[in-house]
Write a structure and sequence with these properties.
241 residues; 24% strand; four-stranded mixed beta sheet; globular; seven-stranded mixed beta sheet; 13 strands; Metallo-beta-lactamase, Chain A
């Protein structure tokens, strides 16, 4: 799953090491053409409701910069577009990957429509010298999400990866602690595996564990979440009775 082709989401390492026959889902024809030009054979433009191994994949809307940033022609051209997406399968929890977006009516609409159990949020608050109003969400938007829809957990990422993201993991954790929402938020380290488990319909987050033999896992075979160069893989699992 490629939200867009900025270098912090799709880079030379991805081009070299991802198998060329794996399905790759992108936001529009231009990104599809770019990735096909690198030798990838199974590139698809994601719509609203495509199936991959019995997992429903749905594209969601983003705005990859504040209105103030988009009013600057040079920034508007460079930022271009992005997308988010939702993973869902019958009998399992629903995951909403918001993508590179600010908090606005697009995000509120997608949360209202999908009612996710987990929301993966890019919260590094990326800025530029031209404008500091933000290309993506920041730590404060973690709370906004929970205030808007308190039935989900938030997994906050896209921090400590690139130099124009001004909100760090340490800042986000301090904010979460101050607001007393630690039980609703997880902020993983680079490469950390987050496993979201249903136990008697009560959400439990286990990090990390490799003991998966006793679980039925929704295998997102061929689906790769590329999130700002941070290797966070989300498994949605249900423990066998």
């Amino acid at each position: 799953m490629v939200t867009h082709t900025h270098l912090d989401h799709w880079d030379l390492y991805a081009e070299a090491y991802i198998k060329k026959d794996l399905p790759v889902y992108v936001q529009h024809a231009a990104d599809a053409q770019l990735i096909r030009s690198k030798g990838f054979k199974n590139v698809k433009v994601l719509g609203r409701g495509m199936l991959q191994n019995k997992v429903k994949l749905t594209r969601t809307a983003c705005q990859h910069a504040s209105d103030a940033m988009l009013s600057i022609p040079e920034l508007a051209e460079r930022l271009d577009q992005s997308m988010g997406f939702v993973f869902e399968a019958e009998g399992h929890k629903k995951v909403y990957v918001a993508g590179d977006t600010i908090w606005n009516e697009y995000v509120e609409t997608e949360i209202t429509r999908h009612k996710p159990d987990y929301r993966i949020s890019n919260t590094g608050h990326a800025e530029t010298k031209m404008d500091d109003s933000g290309m993506i969400m920041g730590k404060e938007d973690i709370l906004k999400c929970l205030e808007f829809y308190n039935k989900c957990k938030v997994i906050a990422v896209h921090m400590d990866a690139i130099n124009h993201c001004m909100h760090s993991r340490a800042m986000a954790r301090e904010f979460v602690k101050e607001k007393k929402i630690e039980d609703k938020v997880f902020i993983p380290e680079d490469g950390e595996i987050v496993k979201c488990t249903m136990v008697d319909e009560k959400v439990v987050i286990e990090v990390p564990s490799t003991g998966v033999n006793d679980y039925h896992i929704i295998e997102l075979v061929g689906s790769l979440i590329i999130l700002s160069g941070i290797g966070v893989i989300v498994y949605v699992k249900k423990k066998r009775k």
